[in-house]
Design a protein that fits this description.
There is one protein chain. By secondary structure, the protein is of the alpha/beta class. The chain folds into 2 domains: 194 residues, 2-enoyl-CoA Hydratase, Chain A, domain 1, CATH 3.90.226.10; 48 residues, Lyase 2-enoyl-coa Hydratase, Chain  A, domain 2. The protein contains 12 helices and 10 strands. The strands form 2 sheets. The chain has a 6-stranded mixed β-sheet, with helices on both faces. Helix 1 links the parallel strand 2 and strand 3. Helix 1 packs parallel to helix 4.
């Protein structure tokens, strides 16, 4: 499939694919078409055994500066309900393979929410994160009040959501929102390196480990522990578990086959 608003590279390095948001004149504002293309690309990569980890990025100026306001300004509540734009976000959330956001410049509103939909975030020193929807008379609607609060705590989330203030990459790291801050010329390379390291692991183990971590956000402790143990036991039915443990005992590098 050819895309209008994203660029895809299924093999930037072995087993790692990239998706680049590509509306530079609009600072990669997230319209319905762009989000649908991201969804399709992720579904394609999820079904591709040659892809084990995915990096989503924008450009040095902006990851995404928010939703496309022009596309929403004239709509009614019924319009928004019928469009059901967040079903696309729910689909992205169900991606089985790990996703790393590589962020430089603005990650605001929907852009910030998209980074939080990813599993890890690598940011350049110029990155800024924020939920400024309050400035235009609305509020975050794609997880900004929920995932942000879980990541940075109530007080910081309240400040960002109710004032519209941005935070720097360093502040975001100190608050627990992102994983790493690097110079702007290295942010994409660093994200790809992280993805490549994950891609060296057993894909089935990575998938079940990701599921288990995400379960911690959806359930209480006891249910989460039950889910974790079930996935842990399940991995003992895989060839990768036997290969990984035998390689450890034999002091060699494992060769995982995703079986």
């Amino acid at each position: 499939m050819s895309y209008e608003f994203i660029l895809v590279n299924p093999q930037i390095v072995p087993f790692v694919a990239t998706i680049q948001l590509n509306r530079p004149k609009e600072l990669n504002a997230l319209n319905l078409q762009l989000m649908g293309e991201i969804r399709h690309a992720l579904e394609t990569f999820d079904a591709d055994d040659s892809v084990r980890a995915i990096v989503i990025h924008g450009n040095e100026r902006a990851f995404a500066a928010g939703a496309d306001i022009k596309q929403m300004a004239g709509r009614t509540a019924v319009d928004m309900l019928q469009i059901d734009q967040f079903s696309t976000w729910d689909s992205i959330r169900r991606t089985k393979k790990p996703i790393i956001a590589a962020v430089s410049g603005f990650a605001l509103g929907g852009g910030c929410e998209l980074t939080m939909l990813c599993d890890m975030i690598v940011a350049s020193e110029t990155a800024q994160f924020g939920q400024p929807e309050i400035n235009i008379g609305v509020m975050p609607g794609a997880g900004g009040t929920q995932r942000l609060t879980r990541a940075v705590g109530k007080a910081r989330a309240m400040e960002m959501v109710l004032t519209g203030n941005f935070i720097s990459a360093q502040e975001a790291k100190e608050a627990g929102l992102i994983n790493k801050v690097v110079p702007v010329e290295l942010y994409l390379d660093e994200a790809v390196k992280m993805a490549q390291k994950i891609a060296e692991k057993s894909p089935i183990a990575v998938q079940l480990a990701k599921e288990s971590v995400l379960k911690a956000f959806d359930t209480g402790l006891q249910e989460g522990l039950y889910f974790e143990r079930k996935n842990f036991y399940m991995l003992f039915a895989t060839e990768d578990q036997k290969e990984g443990m035998n390689a450890f005992i034999e002091k060699r590098k494992p060769e995982f086959k995703n079986r």
